[in-house]
Amino acid sequence: MVLSLTDEFRRIRRLRHDDVPQLMIWDNDPALFHLTGKKFAHDEDETQWWNQLIRDRSRLMFAIVNDDGQLIGDVELQQILWRAREAEIRISIGDKAFWAQGFGSEALQEMLYAAFQLLSLERVYLRVRLDNGRAIRAYEKVGFRAVARLTATGRLSGFPDLQLMEVTRARYAPLSKRA
Question: How many other C-beta atoms lie within 10 A of the C-beta of residue 106?
Fold first, then answer.
């Protein structure tokens, strides 16, 4: 599902169809795949993927941008269970020139604001590889806490074990969403 944001955000914006080719390039980068797994099916084309995304009420995806508005990654709420008011979050900074500079943390903070304040979700969770300390620190920085250790399955099958982390509306303390 593609949602227009009613508020102005610094790091996230509505995903556009013309962003998809770049996302597909990043999806095939071995360094990114090693950390995040695949987002696109091998034989999927961009139009097919886009059409599925805009119809899917269980997914909500945004672009992550730098100070110049350039696409540098994406963040997504997936597996949204509207009745249970929970979702899984996934994030990727595809442009490695912007790694370890706080862009992911800012995008996460804005996405959590959208999840809790705009969508009225109660819980957001994620799965992260245990050997991805940089990501775990970023998640903890915005309020996630570890809740379980999981065996990697699905698109991450064969990878190291995962850490299940979550943040709830009750524990969420929003930072300023505007700079």
Answer: 20
